[in-house]
Amino acid sequence: MQRVRGFMLMGGGAILLILLSTNFFLPHLFGANYYSTESDDQFFEVSPAEQKIIERLKTPESLKALYMTACVAATPSWRGSLKELIERTELNAVVIDIKDYTGTISFPNSFQQKLTGKGCLVPDMKDFIEELHASSIYVIGRISVFQDLYYTHLFPELAVKSKATGGIWKDRKGISFIDVGAKPYWDYIVEISREARAAGFDELNYDYVRYPSDGDMQDAHFTWTNGTSTKAEILEGFFKYLDDKVSEIGVATSVDIFGMTTSTTHDLGIGQVLERTLPYFDYVAPMVYPSHYPKGWNGFEFPAKMPYEVIKIAMTAGREREVAFNVARGLATSTPSKLRPWLQDFNLGATYGPGEIQAQVQATYDSGLSSWMVWNAANRYTVAAFQSETGIHKAGQ
């Protein structure tokens, strides 16, 4: 159950990370900062003025966001059209790639870089964020965590290994993963988070915070996993570490988890358990795409054709578990929910138009929630699905 990803190839490079000790890797911060835009030999300096921290916006009480790849953010006309869509509809936020599965960091930063990754770069990310802020658009930065083609290439000792070959394990799409238990990598994610906050992002969204699932799992070897700890325990250890470090930055955080986590109590083989996630993030985003539920789930022959029902059942279950978890911790039943689902705006298992998307939104509200985000890997959204600012979609109605 892997999210459908879309990307465009652009020029150059990869992060040159410095070996600090035999078993500890962390991007080295230099006095002079450079960023590659075209080739391995062309860099421009990031001045101290450009590194100033931008004031962030307050999180909307009812957040309504769409996803934007780094490639689209690097294309002025395309990103401009999505910005306009947000401005003239009920939408009020955008999720932009900071680091995708290629491992490329999309915005200028103070890591010493010589990029060879295949991801897209957004040299004017700060300016774009300021433009979005000027339109009162809340900006979330997405960080693909343990799925990272480039970092596993740089430091194969931190990657999930193949039992058969002893080399780097890859999933069915040829994508490699960092072992969740590889603590040296945890600090790399913390440093990226600090840089992203300085770049002006209002919130940091962590995706692929899990063990891999798509591929020959019998061949996967997790060398950094403590034999006495479960996947769920190790992943929760990462959540706690991230929370402890990022809380110092003063930025909101969210995490993407499989949709099935709201209705399943075991870790799905990937380490994700809803109750082990809730304490460490401001918002938790189950990816409840109807197309990703198996045939026969809840008696539905084709879940993708039941958008309202799937979202309503999944998010109601999630909310009930969240309330029970809060009560067990001494919190009131009226404690605001952290749940904020990802909804489907792509054709998979069924054709999705305005009706299917609006049905998911209504199901979110009927589950007692007020916020949602919409995913389309190609960034081609169903415009008619989103109401104008005076439209009919109102939480609780």
Report on the architecture of this protein.
- By secondary structure, the protein is an alpha/beta fold.
- The strands form 5 sheets. An 8-stranded parallel β-sheet has the order 14-13-11-9-7-6-16-15. A two-stranded antiparallel sheet has the order 1-8.
- It has one domain (about 60-110, about 120-385): Glycosidases (TIM Barrel).
- A hairpin with a 2-residue loop joins strand 2 and strand 3 (about 25).
- It contains 9 helices and 16 strands.
- It has helices spanning about 70-75, 75-85, 125-135, 150-155, 185-200, 230-245, 275, 305-330, 355-365, and strands spanning about 15, 20, 25, 35, 45, 65-70, 95-100, 115, 140-145, 160, 205, 220, 250-260, 285, 340-345, 370-375.
- The model is unreliable at about 1-50 and about 390-395 (pLDDT under 50).
Number of domains: 1
Radius of gyration equals 20 Å
> Can you tell me the CATH architecture?
Alpha-Beta Barrel
- Which CATH top level class fits? Alpha Beta
List keywords for this structure.
globular, alpha/beta, disordered N terminus, TIM Barrel, 8-stranded parallel beta sheet, 16% strand
Describe this structure in a few short sentences.
The protein contains 9 helices and 16 strands. The chain is α/β, with parallel strands linked by helices.
